[in-house]
Design goal:
This protein is an alpha+beta fold and 215 residues long. It has one domain. It contains six helices and five strands, in the order H-H-H-E-E-H-E-E-E-H-H. The protein has helices at residues 7-14, 17-38, 46-68, 108-114, 178-181, 183-195, and strands spanning 84-86, 89-97, 138-146, 159-165, 172-177. A five-stranded mixed beta sheet has the order 1-2-3-4-5. Strand 2 (89-97), helix 4 and strand 3 form a beta-alpha-beta unit. It starts with 6 loop residues before the first helix and ends in a 20-residue tail after the last helix.
C-alpha cells in the first residue's frame, strides 16, 4: 500500500474542490425551495410534505450541479436515485435526520452500489486474504442532514456530510462535513508549495547589460 493511499486522499484527488462547493450550494438551494413550496399545507402533515419535497428538489439541484460540473448525471426519473461520476467515485445523495442516519439502507439500489467499496475497505480494515490494490471504482454519498423538527432550521440542512460506507452499508469508512473536508484542498496546496523549489535560469548571472550589472 502506498503511503499516501487513504480514503480522504482518494476523495480529494478524484473529486474537484469546485464540485464539492457546488454541491454544498445546490443542497442549500434545494432545501429552501422545498420548504417554500410546502408553505400553506396543514400543520398535521407538513413535516411529511417537506420531507418529500426535499427529496425531489435536492434531486433536481444535485442533477443540475453534476451536469454543470461534467460529472455525468443519471437521468431524473421519478423518485429514483441520481448518480454522477468523478474519477473512480460514483456520486450519490440522500437526506437524513442529523442524529440518526436510518434512511441509507432503505434503498436496495444504495445497498447494491455500496458493494463496490469492498475495494477500499482495506484502507481502514486491512484484510489478510484480500490485500489492497488501487481501486477502479467506489461510491460516496453526499448526505444532507436536517433537524428532526421543523422548528429548527427548517429551510436548510444542519450539515452536509461526505460519507463513504462499507460494502454492506452498515457503517462508515469515512464521514466528514463538507465544511471540514474542503480544508483538505488548502492543506494539500500548502504542502505542494513547501516542496516547490525555485529554479534559476541556466544563463542567470551571465548576462551583463550595458551598465555592467546583471540582468
Amino acid at each position: 500500500m502506498r503511503q499516501h493511499d487513504s480514503i480522504p486522499e482518494l476523495l480529494r484527488v478524484n473529486i474537484a474542490r469546485e464540485l464539492i462547493l457546488a454541491v454544498e450550494d445546490a443542497f442549500a438551494v434545494g432545501a429552501r425551495r422545498a420548504y417554500s413550496a410546502a408553505q400553506g399545507m396543514d400543520e398535521g402533515h407538513l413535516p411529511h410534505v417537506v420531507g418529500q419535497l426535499r427529496h425531489f428538489h435536492l434531486n433536481e439541484t444535485f442533477h443540475q450541479t453534476l451536469s454543470t460540473n461534467h460529472a455525468s448525471p443519471s437521468p431524473i426519473k421519478g423518485s429514483g436515485i441520481i448518480t454522477g461520476r468523478a474519477g473512480i467515485f460514483t456520486l450519490a445523495r440522500f437526506n437524513s435526520r442529523d442524529t440518526l442516519w436510518n434512511s441509507a439502507r432503505r434503498s436496495q439500489t444504495r445497498r447494491q452500489m455500496a458493494l463496490a467499496n469492498r475495494a477500499i475497505e482495506p484502507l481502514v480494515q486491512p484484510e489478510l486474504f484480500f490485500p489492497y490494490t488501487p481501486p477502479t471504482g467506489a461510491v460516496v454519498f453526499f448526505v444532507a442532514c436536517f433537524a428532526g423538527s421543523l422548528s429548527i432550521q427548517p429551510d436548510s440542512p444542519v450539515s452536509i456530510q461526505l460519507a463513504v460506507p462499507d460494502r454492506h452499508l452498515q457503517k462508515w469508512l469515512f464521514r466528514e462535513s463538507l465544511e471540514t473536508f474542503i480544508q483538505r484542498y488548502d492543506v494539500s496546496s500548502a504542502m505542494q508549495d513547501d516542496f516547490a523549489r525555485p529554479k534559476l535560469k541556466k544563463n542567470f548571472g551571465k548576462q551583463i547589460d550595458k551598465d555592467g550589472t546583471t540582468s
